[in-house]
């Protein structure tokens, strides 16, 4: 059985069996979220000859089964595994799984309770369904990219967080949990078509629904929340670090002005758009006169909505994050964010073990899913599976 801590039995997704077909960024995050909250996640890897090293750095709590889906015996093995699984997550472009004989029509007929999650950039239908793409392309097609960037600059893609991980991995995980909830009533599985374009567009619902409020009436980079306002901006400190300012409401803005040592009566009104560029320069010159630590000592006890921009090196040791244990350390000493949100009764208990080697748990998983030792030996002789001895890697 899957080796987990005793606390695993109390986790929200305990007992849920997930098969995650190895892929890039979004699918591994989706699988890791489910594993963190108690699901038994098996990452189905390609054989190591065709995947020299796993590209999954989000394998916390997962086990690895190395299976060659291009061989009929490998595809048949996955089909059988899906008969005993609750969830399948697959990352391939439209039509790939069907060519392997592993499409939802086949698998759901054999296991009507299966949640078949398809996580792709452009979705299962439409002009681009079979096209390649990356986060920046999905972000562009969603309309969101057009809103990101500073004044008189090209649109700016903020690394690959929005489409890949938020619109893709997180949205797909939400879809899976929703489908599992519905299955508890109907007893039936279903297919999830998780498109990163649509996922990140859905995330931007506020942008769409607030258009009539005037929040986005100016060109890109000149609005209240997109770096146009001096009181919603990032400023450099004297030691080369940064402070983030988000003093939107007048009562918070007043505290910002006080902390900066300015007199409100001697300044233009907060919402005087024409004065924003000059106010930015004024704020920047003041922030540049003190270190980040000095500004923290001024603003930490206020409601000015001013916080330090923490580096990855500093974030885990910040007092607030330390008090909440917001970051965790695994057995290798690597620091990463704790699973969120925090559940009061059945919280996530993330694994602290190292990530699995490709094929490390192949035999263990196949036995668990009902394969006999003889069947496993035959799959091995057919070169459809692979075992990995972790001791050889130490």
From TrEMBL:
UniProt entry keywords in alphabetical sequence: Isomerase
Keyword Isomerase attached: yes
Enzyme class, UniProt record, top EC level: isomerase
Superkingdom of this protein's organism: Eukaryota
Chain positions covered by the region annotation Disordered: 324-355
Gene Ontology CC terms: mitochondrion
MF (Gene Ontology): alpha-methylacyl-CoA racemase activity
Annotated SUPFAM superfamilies: CoA-transferase family III (CaiB/BaiF)
Translocase found in the keyword field: no
Coiled coil: none
Pathway(s): Lipid metabolism; bile acid biosynthesis
EC number: 5.1.99.4
Reactions catalysed according to its record: a (2S)-2-methylacyl-CoA = a (2R)-2-methylacyl-CoA; (25R)-3alpha,7alpha,12alpha-trihydroxy-5beta-cholestan-26-oyl-CoA = (25S)-3alpha,7alpha,12alpha-trihydroxy-5beta-cholestan-26-oyl-CoA; (2R,6)-dimethylheptanoyl-CoA = (2S,6)-dimethylheptanoyl-CoA
GO biological process, any: bile acid metabolic process
Pfam family name, one: CoA_transf_3
Reported function: Catalyzes the interconversion of (R)- and (S)-stereoisomers of alpha-methyl-branched-chain fatty acyl-CoA esters. Acts only on coenzyme A thioesters, not on free fatty acids, and accepts as substrates a wide range of alpha-methylacyl-CoAs, including pristanoyl-CoA, trihydroxycoprostanoyl-CoA (an intermediate in bile acid synthesis), and arylpropionic acids like the anti-inflammatory drug ibuprofen (2-(4-isobutylphenyl)propionic acid) but neither 3-methyl-branched nor linear-chain acyl-CoAs.
Family that this chain belongs to: Belongs to the CoA-transferase III family.
Annotated protein name in UniProt: Alpha-methylacyl-CoA racemase
Lineage: Eukaryota, Metazoa, Chordata, Craniata, Vertebrata
């Amino acid at each position: 059985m899957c080796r987990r801590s005793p606390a695993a039995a109390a986790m929200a997704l305990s007992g849920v069996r997930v098969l995650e077909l190895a892929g890039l960024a979004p699918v591994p995050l989706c699988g890791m979220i489910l594993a963190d909250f108690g699901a038994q996640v098996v990452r189905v890897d390609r054989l190591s000859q065709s995947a020299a090293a796993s590209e999954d750095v989000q394998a916390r709590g997962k086990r690895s089964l190395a299976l060659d889906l291009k061989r009929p015996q490998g595809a048949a093995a996955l089909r059988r595994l899906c008969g005993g699984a609750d969830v399948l997550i697959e990352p391939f472009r439209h039509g790939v799984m069907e060519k392997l004989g592993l499409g939802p029509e086949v698998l759901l007929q054999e296991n009507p309770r299966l949640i078949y999650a398809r996580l792709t950039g452009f979705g299962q239908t439409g002009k681009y369904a079979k096209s390649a793409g990356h986060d920046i392309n999905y972000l562009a097609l969603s309309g969101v990219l057009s809103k990101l960037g500073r004044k008189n600059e090209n649109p700016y893609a903020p690394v690959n967080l929005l489409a890949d991980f938020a619109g893709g991995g997180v949205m797909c995980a939400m879809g899976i949990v929703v489908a599992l909830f519905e299955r508890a009533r109907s007893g039936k599985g279903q297919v999830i078509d998780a498109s990163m374009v649509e996922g990140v567009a859905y995330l931007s619902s506020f942008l769409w629904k607030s258009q009539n409020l005037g929040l986005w009436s100016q060109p890109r980079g000149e609005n209240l929340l997109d770096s146009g306002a001096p009181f919603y901006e990032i400023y450099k400190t004297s030691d080369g670090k940064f402070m983030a300012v988000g003093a939107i409401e007048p009562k918070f803005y007043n505290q910002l002005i006080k902390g900066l040592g300015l007199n409100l009566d001697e300044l233009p009104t907060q919402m005087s758009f024409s004065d924003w560029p000059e106010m930015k320069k004024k704020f920047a010159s003041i922030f540049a006169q003190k270190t980040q630590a000095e500004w923290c000592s001024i603003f930490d006890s206020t409601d000015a909505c001013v916080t330090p921009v923490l580096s990855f090196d500093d974030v885990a040791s910040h007092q607030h994050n330390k008090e909440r244990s917001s970051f965790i350390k695994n057995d290798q000493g690597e620091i990463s964010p704790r699973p969120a949100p925090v559940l009061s009764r059945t919280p996530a208990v993330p694994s602290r073990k190292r990530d699995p080697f490709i094929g490390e748990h192949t035999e263990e998983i196949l036995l668990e899913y009902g394969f006999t030792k003889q069947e496993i030996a035959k799959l091995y002789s057919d070169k459809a599976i692979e075992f990995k001895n972790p001791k050889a890697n130490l």
